[in-house]
Amino acid sequence: MQGSGSDAEVLLAPPRWAKRLAEAEVGIAFFDEISTAPPSVQAALLRVVLERTVGDLVLPETVAVVAAANPPDQAADGWDLSAPLANRFCHLDWPSDARRMAEGFAGGWGTPPVPVLPEGWEELVPIARSWVAGFVSVRPMLALAVPDDASSSGRAWPSPRSWDMAARLLAAARAAGVDELVASQLVRGAVGNGPGVEFLTWLEEADLPDPEAVLADPSSFRLPDRGDRAFAALTSIAAVVSARPTPERWAAAWKVFGSVSDKAPDAAATAARTLAKCRPAGAPVPPEVAAFAPLLRDAQLLA
Fold first, then answer.
1. How many CB atoms lie within 10 A of CB 249?
2. Cα–Cα distance measured from residue 299 to residue 293, given in angstroms and rounded to the nearest whole number
3. pLDDT at position 268
4. So what's the pLDDT on residue 221?
5. Distance from C-alpha of 91 to C-alpha of 146, rounded to nearest angstrom
6. pLDDT digits (tens, 9 = 90+) for 124-137
7. Residue 272's closest CA among 283, 284, 287, 256?
């Protein structure tokens, strides 16, 4: 406790390992055998895992939080992860493979290649989020589906938090050019096998246009027939402009929206709100905005 009287406050001293991580600025907080932690300890980990906060110390964003565990039935005094804690992780299984184990013992384990994220990879995150938005618009029950049993709730399951994690992981995987199997494992590890497979299948079948190619040539845009795919295509265009708004990109996006305002009014209206919020300074209002003027005025996005 510090101070006295009404000014007294309780300070939570961080452990030494947290101080070392904060001082190093880059590192991994690794929690081993996490399935041996009882519910009270798991509750204490929630802020550490999601907010990187230990006591009164906030760890840098460059510190990753990783955990490992045996299945609860194989751990000493094992516990299923609580649903809130499980929902904060991407779950990756590590099956035993006798052949690889034998090769490792005989010839050494080697160092696996680590994909490198290129500069600016996060520009793909809004696009991936728009894909998720399109998918949950047609599968709303998978936006949030908390499992009923303890075993399933201790694994990956879909929620707004884990869908956002899946979008970031998918964007990172696409930017790094990793194998599609790796991207699939990451998405399924975030939201669960069933929802993850459904989403990836929907995404493959949707055949959505590259939003950057559309901005380069707005006349090339062809609106998908299905509403969920139209929603994903239009919101992805607005998302990439929002991530890097220039007068030219902003005007090109409005040309696209103006051409489909009467064919997909709901999807175009949602994307138009996003686009209106990122108007570059000094950019003139193109004529295509007129189709959305009442909507944007009601949202106080247009004078």
1. 23
2. 10
3. 83
4. 92
5. 16
6. 999 999 999 999 99
7. 256
Query: What is the torsion angle, in degrees rounded to the nearest 10, for the CA atoms of residue 181, residue 185, residue 188 and residue 190?
Result: -140
- Specify the amino acid at residue 184: S
| Amino acid letter, residue 27 | G
Are the CB atoms for 240 and 211 separated by under 8 Å?
yes
Q: 264: buried, middle or exposed (CB in 10 Å: 19+, 13-18, 0-12)?
A: buried
Instruction: Please tell me the distance from the alpha carbon of residue 32 to that of residue 17, in angstroms, as a whole number.
Output: 14
- Which of 202, 264, 216, 273 is closest to 239 using CA atoms? 273
Span 124-152, average pLDDT: 91
Residues paired with residue 29 on neighbouring β-strands, in sequence order:
65
Q: 43: which 2 tokens?
A: 């509750």
Q: What's the whole-model pTM score? A: 0.85
What is the residue-averaged pLDDT of the chain?
Answer: 88
Q: How far apart are CA 88 and CA 7, in angstroms?
A: 36
The two tokens of residue 245 are 């708004």
Please name the residue that has the structure tokens 């009287």. 5
The pair of structure tokens assigned to 239 is 């998302």
Q: 12 is written with which tokens?
A: 């939570």
